[in-house]
């Protein structure tokens, strides 16, 4: 999941091995309610980025808190598949809470247990 606080625009990276005619990203709050659905069309294979402006479906700024992002994609033949989601960026803060470490990356807070890899920034990681 991602942590959102007003004034930030969290981003989530995604990877797809095949062309997607459409990818639907569903952002849900901690209760599982859908806050916003964002659709990207004609997505080439590779890594892309979903940027969320922090607003819900009617344009109100969402409340500070944790949100989950689910992705559903459709290929050129109309078959469904699931892109891989990840968050790539530079850690700007580490917070310890309830015995666990959380990393602040691109304005999103992620649990240390969800980290796949850590390394020095490379040129390709920079915007």
What's the short story on this structure?
With 127 residues, this protein is an all-beta fold. It has no helices and eleven strands.
Q: What does it look like?
A:
The strands form 3 sheets. Strands 1, 3, 4, 6 and 7 form a 5-stranded antiparallel beta sheet that branches. A 3-stranded antiparallel beta sheet has the order 5-2-8, with no helix packed on it. The protein has a 3-stranded antiparallel beta sheet with strand order 9-10-11, with no helix packed on it. The protein is mostly beta strands. It has strands at residues 2-4, 11-16, 20-28, 34-43, 46-51, 65-74, 80-81, 84-86, 91-97, 100-105, 108-111. The chain is built from no helices and 11 strands. Helix content is 0%, strand content 52%. A hairpin with a 5-residue loop joins strand 6 (65-74) and strand 7.
Short descriptors:
single chain, 127 residues, mainly beta, 3-stranded antiparallel sheet, 0% helix
User: Which parts are unreliable, with pLDDT below 50 for 5 consecutive residues or more?
Assistant: none
Shape: globular
The profile of the biggest β sheet is:
5 strands, antiparallel
Total helical segments? 0
- What is the strand content? over 45%
**In which range does the helix fraction lie?**
under 10%
- Looking at how many chains there are and whether they match, the oligomeric state comes to single chain
Radius of gyration: 15 Å
* Structural class assignment: mainly beta
H/E order of the elements?
Answer: EEEEEEEEEEE
**Distance between the terminal alpha carbons, to the nearest Å?**
22 Å
Mean pLDDT: 84
Q: Number of DSSP strands?
A: 11
């Amino acid at each position: 999941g991602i942590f959102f606080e007003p004034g930030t625009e969290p981003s989530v990276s995604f990877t797809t091995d095949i062309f997607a005619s459409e990818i639907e990203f569903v952002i849900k709050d901690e209760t599982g309610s859908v806050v916003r659905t964002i659709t990207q069309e004609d997505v080439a294979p590779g890594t892309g980025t979903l940027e969320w402006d922090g607003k819900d479906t009617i344009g109100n700024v969402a409340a500070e808190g944790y949100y989950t992002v689910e992705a559903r994609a459709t290929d050129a033949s109309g078959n469904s598949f699931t892109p891989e989601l990840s968050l790539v960026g530079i850690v700007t803060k580490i917070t310890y809470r309830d015995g666990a470490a959380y990393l602040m990356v691109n304005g999103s807070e992620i649990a240390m247990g969800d980290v796949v890899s850590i390394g020095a920034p490379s040129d390709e990681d920079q915007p």
